[in-house]
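Dear Dr. H.,

I hope your travels went smoothly. While you were away I took the liberty of generating a structure for the chain from your last submission, since the lab meeting agenda had it listed for discussion. I wanted you to have the full record in hand beforehand rather than looking at slides cold. The sequence, exactly as received, is reproduced here:
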Amino acid sequence: MYRFYCLALAALLLATQLHAQSNSALISKGTELYNRASYDSSLVIFEKCERTALQTNDKKQLLTIYNHIGHIYSQTGKRVEAMKYYEKLAVLAEETGNRSAEARALINMGALYEEQKNYNSALNIYSKAEEMAITIKDSSIIADCANNRGVVYEQYLQKYPEALKEYNTALAIYIKMNDRRRMAMSYNNTGIVYKFLGNYPMAIELYKKSLQIAEELGDQFFIAVNMTNIGNVYAKMKDYNKAIDYNMKGLNIALKLNAMNVVVEAASSISDDYAGLKDYKKAFEWHQKYSAYSESLYNTEQTRQTTELESKYQSAKKEKEIILLKQQQEIDKLTASKQKLLLQKRKYQFIGVGIVVALLGIVAFLLYNRKLLKQRQLHEKAMLAAEYKERKRISSEMHDDIGAGLTQITLISEHALRKQPTGNNEFAEIAETSHKLISNMSEIVWSLNPENKTLDLLFAYLREQLNKLLEYSGIIFTIDFPETTSVVILSNEQRRALLLITKEIVHNAVKYSKAKRIDIKAVLVGQQLTFTVKDDGIGFDTTQHFSGNGMKNIKHRIQEVNGTLTIDSAINEGSSFTYAITI
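The corresponding predicted structure, in token form, is as follows:
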């Protein structure tokens, strides 16, 4: 499901007066390619324009160029590169006094923070941008800020009335400005809200309005996204044939654009659509394609990260060579000085020789220690890299091999159960067990992946899993996790324990408590991480013996990570679980 953030593009281009006619023509060509979603070709042109503008010190052209390159990286999923260019744009805009360009750069940075689930930073940046827009009376920027706030309300806070209010405010301004591209974006975002509200006909109507404008503009990326969005709504309506038709169209366009994020989502949806039609053979085939596309997307990102690490390594190596060269130069100067002193004052000969020998000994000792330290660091780095690689291999093989096998078992058992629906409880049990194993395996794969070692990633994954568990339960729920930075590291055992304990408690509350409301909260104070799960259900007697494994597993897992668990419950008074660990 694709939400669209407001990114500064056409308005900034129109506001920038270009000096060099040749570069101006290239920028226009690059903009045209960008609007047609030809990102690779567009990037080549804008990088050439950047070199020319830097040589001529044309700051007005650089404002436009930085803006475009940032958008290209953002649209292709390269957030780090996009953020670098938006920061360049903001600094240059402030330097030249271009408040409009500075505000738009802030909006773009806020959208990147939002995609990274750093919502507080995103909202703060939108507020700064809106203050600038009000000062300079730029209604377009005010509308963009309203649109992006709507995304926060819709995606993160699930406050759909507030989201609709923000989207409609933005849409009214875009219609008044006759900004077709942003009108299409607003229709798409509003359609997402109506989909979540269950008003599927209205969602499809809005998606099709967005699609019509995208086709008029020739924006292939936007066309692909709208196709997949429409297909997903038809799947919600159980019209799987139409869902497959729209998702296939979106996938084919995305493949031509190499927009792999859209390709992966479309392939996953097509697999689900065929499963809805009970065509398990094609569902399995498309699940395999989905896995292949996902692997391709992962490998592309890994290659980029490897290149960055190699570049950093080479830079560090050159810096060390310079330091060693300077040290050698200092030694040479010192030796020359000693020789001159010996010629001038013979009586200090033995003292001078002793000093030189001592200095050389110290230098040799330091160099020898440096070499030993370097060897130890390389050894430790190799061991960490080997561990990282092995865990990635185990995670990948479990996802690809075991996951595909379990999916095939599920599809086969469901197919067999459909052919002989009576007297085949064994098939039903196999299908149910396979579903549970797939869910459990997904959690194991996530916890094994060494890239998921930080607390903020645990919060993001846990929030996603809890939303899936509670979304259709009919229970009102809140999830309150603090904003953290990536420097808070958890061990593999801590991540898995917290994930499984929280899901087990919430699952039991949904299944047994008859609660109307569930509140999940996490608090980080110093090194103490505390979770609290409360419900207003029927409660239970905490002194009774539990025959099932659920409560035993919860207590065992918190003990494994040296944590504490407190259970507060009574009959008809709800339940409260509080568990904490030291990180």
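Two observations you may find useful: DSSP finds 20 helices and five strands in the chain. The domain at 453-582 is CATH 3.30.565.10 (Heat Shock Protein 90).

With kind regards,
E. W.
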